[in-house]
Structures
1.
Amino acid sequence: MPTMNKKANSRYSMQQCMQMAACTNCQSCADVCPAVNAAGDGRLSALHRMRGLQQILKSRNSSGWIARLFGRKELTEEEWKEFSETVYRCTLCGNCQEVCPVGINLKDLWVSLREDLVDEKHFPKKINMIKSNLKSSRNVFDEDNEERAEWVEDMDDPPDDLFVRDEAEVVYFTGCTAAYFPVAQKIPLALADILLQAEIDFTLLGEDEWCCGFPLLGAGLKDMFTEFAEHNIQAVLEKGAKTVTFACPSCYEMWKEHYPYKENGIQIFHSTQYLEMLIKEEKIPFKSLDMTVTYHDPCDLGRGAREFNAPRAVIKAIPGVTFVELPNNRENCNCCGGGGNLEMVDAKLSAGIAKSKVEEAISTGADTIVSSCQQCVRTMLTYAKRNKINIDVLDITQLVRKALEMDE
Ligand code: SF4
Ligand code: SF4
């Protein structure tokens, strides 16, 4: 039996414990959970997870206020193992938090719980890979970080400096997936074309861009995070840039919630916000596209950063495009299955969640699912292609790139 771990107990604030005690067992969180629905397994629900967490807290405290709230009960090794497996089979989509009638801040609780399980050494061994990859290569895929900007070579007319410049007004922070995954590289290729068309003075950070740190927090490895945040802020400051834009919602949310960007005089924009601004300034001339599209709100941009309007404004600004909402949209949007490192831990469950998502999109009659996240695009596109489903999946930057007048 693990001994009581003081550091792990400090993972939970008094407020978090009080919130857990306020749970009414209403099960609303289980009803909307994509993991529960795809796996048909109630043990993946927020409710079950909170009961398990309460049991952990009981097992540690024989006295004090936690014991008074929850009583005391020991966990067996088998219970630790089984519980840990359910904790990591979660996309961190935040839908449970969105519907919880007593306002429990569940997403933060899941992150604290993962940190706790890492302290207790009860976590999937694949999580060690994230840690060692980021330590050795500074990107989550253990690629050579000097090759971060190599996707630029696939442009029609790539500049010699691959957009890695000494100084610029704007930094485009690419993110690991878009920098290295061939399917996702279409997103930076599209955004670079748009920025060129709009005559934006931008640079990439190249090898000086390190992972934003999102996989570290999602895995429960918060202690390594600060080094990554400090490095990336410094890299932006060295370019003299005052603006950073991101096509990845997770990078954007990491900066928004955890980076000291405001203190350093930096403004940040997700690509949807930046594109909306460029459209308003009439810097992006459009041609008409004959398409019917629906929009999938990425969890980190929608429920996380509460940005629902900018992507819809961008889509609706393109002439000829018919826009149809998904039955579950905005704050109630269903997850695509790609978040929370789930694919690494349980690829089958991730694909099961993607299946429900793609089926929901097909029900709208749209010919294209648009999202604003490389991971959402990758997850839905992979499912659609593997199953020969006739629906296209595009990032919003790809949609805008398709509509640029420069193609005519
Ligand atoms: S964050 Fe999403 S996947 Fe995880 S428990 Fe909540 S609803 Fe389920
Ligand atoms: S929705 Fe909130 S109150 Fe209801 S069971 Fe889930 S955590 Fe408890």
2.
Amino acid sequence: MSNTIQQYKDYVMTGFLKSVAPIVIDHAKDCTITDVNGREYLDCFAGISVVNAGHNNPQVIEAAKKQMDKLIHCQSYLYHAQPVGDLAEKIAHIAPRGLTKTFFGNGGAEAIEGAMKLARLYSGKHEFIALHASFHGRSWGTLSITGNQGRKKRGGPYAPGIAFAPVPYTYRSNWPKDPEECGRQCAKALEDVIRFSTAGDVAAFISEPVWGEGGIIVPPSNYFKEIKKVLDKHGILFICDEVQTGFARTGKMFAIEHFGVEPDILCTAKGIADGFPLSGYTTRPEIAAAYKPGDHLSTFGGNPVSCAAALANIEFMEKENLAARATETGNYAMAKLRALQKQNPLIGEVRGLGLMIGVELIKDEKLTPATAEAEAVRDALFRQGVLVGVGGVNGNVIRFQPPLIITKKQIDQAINAFAEALSEVNQPATV
Ligand SMILES: Cc1ncc(COP(=O)(O)O)c(C=O)c1O
């Protein structure tokens, strides 16, 4: 056994996972990961939707190296650091209208917690509404607004003042099949939650624009417009969690742009810096002004190297038009997966936006989740050298979220391997 694998067993906390994939990764480039034995893997999970511009993108690396030679850390809030200013200005230009001021942290959960704190300070209100099937992080505050028992178990009780509204998971809920009607009914359900499950002291509604960990659930096109009407009526802020969907993943720089509404606070992380640790939340100046001296800080937040990498990453995305590419390649992949669905009853639904694609596996016509099968498919793909994720509230959704630079040829390779994995899993066990 490799020394690294033994070191993990002896010295790294991994008890929160069923297993760690039995490879030691040596290096990665674009969509290919290579292990210490020289075996290559096609990465269709991008480090959980992080390396949107590809592994070790040369422009990102060059910007980071240049910055490393000059300054790694100075405390980016006590003093001014040029990459922080440059990146914040860039984000002000690409973020939804009016969102011009950013706080930078290190990871997604930190951004969400900061946004919640700021929403409370600005509104003077204290409660939150989140959604079923949502995921917002692993800190206590973000687990408190996460709508998934699988993630919350053994961590409660959670923060008070949080109510949950239903998510438009049309494949599994009893929502009307007509998407527009589903959108309207979800808004009505939100109205009921405000009325019956809160004290009328709601600071913010928080939602992902596409629910990632929940199973790549894409809302009806009118959903957020209907929701926003309710929020505006009750003076509730909209915090949009774009930690997973941001930075061209869904075919727009930010996924909320698909739905014709503007959030009050936009949270970002994962794809922001192509693998360098960084997160942010961006808002309107009057909301940002709710912070008063002493209210907030982060030691590593706004690290100059991460910020320089993020700026190069965003410029690469714009130059290469990665958002349009994600739409084109994503539609290509989904068409192929839907063709595969016709021959394969294990596939219940193929859904997604851009290169955020979920394939929900079912056992029968009652839509019984094929949870063990999903893990078996992922493992079979791994043996074939293709990395994918498994997620969803029932653990039965195969997640394709590759770097956005993936080629159609590589998509073909992944889907051929997926077809083989499905037939391997469908084989009756031999005794
Ligand atoms: C939508 C969403 N929000 C927040 C988080 C938490 O991000 P992090 O793991 O960087 O804290 C995640 C992580 O998967 C996420 O998908």
